[in-house]
Design goal:
Structural class of chain B: alpha/beta
CATH superfamily of chain A: Rieske [2Fe-2S] iron-sulphur domain
Structural class of chain A: mainly beta
Largest sheet of chain A: 4 strands, antiparallel
Radius of gyration of chain A: 13 Å
CATH topology of chain A: Rieske Iron-sulfur Protein
Shape of chain B: elongated
Number of helices of chain B: 25
Strand order of the largest sheet of chain B: 3-2-1-7-19
Number of strands of chain B: 37
Oligomer: heterodimer
Order of helices and strands of chain A: HEEEEEEEEEE
Strand content of chain A: 35-45%
Helix content of chain A: under 10%
Largest sheet of chain B: 5 strands, parallel
Radius of gyration of chain B: 31 Å
Amino acid sequence: MQTTAKKQMNDWIEIGTLDAIPCLGARVVQTADGDIAVFRTADDRVFALRDRCPHKGGPLSQGIVHGNKVACPLHDWKVHLDTGLAVEPDEGCAARYPVRIEGDRIFLSLAPEEGCPNL
Amino acid sequence: MKEKLVVVGNGMAGMRAVEELLKLAPDKYAITVFGAEPHPNYNRILLSPVLTGEKQFREILLNDDAWYAEHGITLHKGKTVVEIDRRRRLVKASDGTASTYDRLLLATGSNPFILPVPGKDLPGVIGFRDFADVETMLTAAKEYRHAVVIGGGLLGLEAANGLLKQGMKVTVIHLVDTLMERQLDRAAGRMLKKALEARGVHFRLEAKTQEIIGKQRVQGVRLVDGTELTADLVVMAVGIRPNFALAQATGIHCEKGIVVSDTLQTYDPRVYAVGECVQHRGLSYGLVAPLFEQAKVCANHLAELGYARYEGSITSTKLKITGIDLFSAGDFSGDDSTDEIVMQDAARGVYKKVVLDGNKIRGAVMYGDTLDGAWYFQMMRDGTDVSAFRERLLFGQAHLGDAGHGDIKQRINLMPDDAEICGCNGVCKGTIVKAIGEKKLFTLDEVRAHTKASSSCGSCTGLVEALLATTAGGDYSTATKKKPMCPCTDHSHDELRIAIRAQSLKTIPAVMQQLQWKTPNGCGKCRPALNFYLLTAWPGEYVDDNQSRFINERAHANIQKDGTYSVVPRIWGGETTPRELRSLAEIAEKYRVPTVHITGGQRIDFLGVKKETLPLIWGDLSQAGFVSGHAYGKAIRTVKTCVGSQWCRFGTQDSTTLGIQLEKMAWGAWTPHKFKLGVSGCPRNCAEATIKDFGVVCVDSGYELHVGGNGGVKVRVTDFLCRVKTPEEALEYCAAFLQLYREEAHYLERTAPWIERVGLAYVKQRVVENEAGRKELADRFHYSQKFSQDDPWAARAQGAERHEFIPLKMVG
């Protein structure tokens, strides 16, 4: 809880430009608390999730992005990029992180959205 | 305002169509459903186990009242539609309830055929169609003793078995001399009769009903020969008739059923029909698989997508009587142009017959051991050439090309609930059975989604299908002959490959647009497949789409469970030098590689390398003269060799040199699945060449070429392709074989299942017999190799695809 409180204070961090992430791909932001995967969809929306599949902790950033989902490279679970929830009938979630885009600059907040324990 | 869809019929076909429609266009229609029965929608094919007491009625409900409410569907239970006014687009039920429609879906099912004999209307004379019939039978079983079932078909025998289980004395009357004569031949029919007699069912075969006798209630049945049978309950199970009276009354064209087109539309284009009530291309179906297929196509048109077509179904049947295993599919009686392969073991109660037309399966009947039914059915639908394993066909799939694993498939019905079915995902029989029952699963894909069984290596697919068949009730399987590549498209692998060439489609978006993909940018299944198909169709022209490659191929290394990678440099033909080994040792130490492992393919594997380190380690490897081993790809892997005539006292040819030449020729090529080679210097075969995709066994007079072997999940020994005299020929045949496989196999299909699908004879014809064709194939292979033999590691060590290997940002 302490770390969360600390994070909530902090602000948006600029992490790079849109063209640094391949379309239908992802890049990783390394933090002291673990990796965050930053995804870019075909229509240039950007989402950030904890880089851990709710199944066995696989790095979601390495998966194939399709529509607004990513397929985990380890056992092919699919995770919704917008909600962080596993695609049914699988159950589980990866924590979401707020993302903001200004022009082509991407900003990330390290304070996870509430609702998912898989931080 | 939403358009109004009215569905007449709350059975399996109608509701399946609604479910499919909700998936495609959840908000398009305001939906109203009329059902004559006073229940929500239930699984009619499981009425038999309800009758035997093996299941409760609530267990077979498919959608409860809450489901209708949740989807905003108005359900009129227990209201029979009596009139359709097509001019005013209005349907009316018997109680006066009326509803207008923009589109109408008729799913009125079928009625049991009632013999037109005197006494047919007496109380105690029923059909076997709905839950009310089951309730009547259960009540009768409590009060009375004698039951007569008229009709020895599937439904009649299930009714007889159920009534017997409920304690009644049951006699089955059947018109001809073979039970289930539409599904079984005489031999299987006799075995079935014997098994049921042993349980206590009595039979009167070749017997015709003349009259049903009784005053207040049925008391007996009189046959034409004068015999009288005592009966307190008579179940008529002599067939079903499509229920089209309502459609006919409103002037819709009907023959033996409501006539529909390939889009499931009747002659009135606002009116659709699905299920047992329809007649499509002259046929009506009474099994669930075709109905589901129709429902899917109908929903596609109701949603105005407009691209699906129903082209008829091939069906199979399984009897749902616990303890009696029976399977039948296709044409099981054959004619002058067909052959039969028969196996009969009366003592074990096993009978199998496969009817062949040329080298293709046209039908099958199995009794007592039906485990391979799904396999035969699959080959029948796919038109698989079985010539290569014809003599082993009846031993079943488990015995096919198998080195000592024949008994791996235990008899599924003898398996305990805790027996593991899916070894990859650790799923037991009990878990699958439970999920099928509780979650109402009907298809293999649904079982995969819910339990993960059969979703990884797929070797347990046959077992899962068998479980589905016994649990969900026989006729579960998808009825289409053509299998779409993935849920994003209706096209099969072959159709896509043809379209890519014929329509000169040169990018993934072009394929998706031209062929009407259902998803905006595909999925993790279709994108890698399309990328490969485009790569092979347009060598040198197509630009590889990295984002459509699985991570291993994108990063040119194998992802491990902890997110690190493994690095396997190529060691040509498995031969190395002290200098090479020294540099490998130094590199491993320099980068603190946690584990160094010798692979089965005669190479060295560095495990536990972090992604950021990959380009650095590759830079050092490249300086030491190594290139990528492609151990991570659907690509040419390794060529395993023995030392051959160079050293070995038994060696007949220089197998090591040939192995190195093969690897230098083939490395870098992408293939539908991984492709391994082996060259053994003599028939002792130390390089295990006969379990490789392409294997060479050297003999004194030349080189034996073998194809289509693999180790792995299901060991398969190669097929012998031919013998050649020179190493040059061996190289040419290998190139041609590789190219044929690259051009024609489905993505993720290894050479073994590909050869089983197309037949060894076909491969021989293309690679061995047709000399000009072989040279053309080899030429095409060499041409495409011009573009694939750049070492991906060297390029990345020099900075290519840099974003793949470094973090976007490091914080804190």
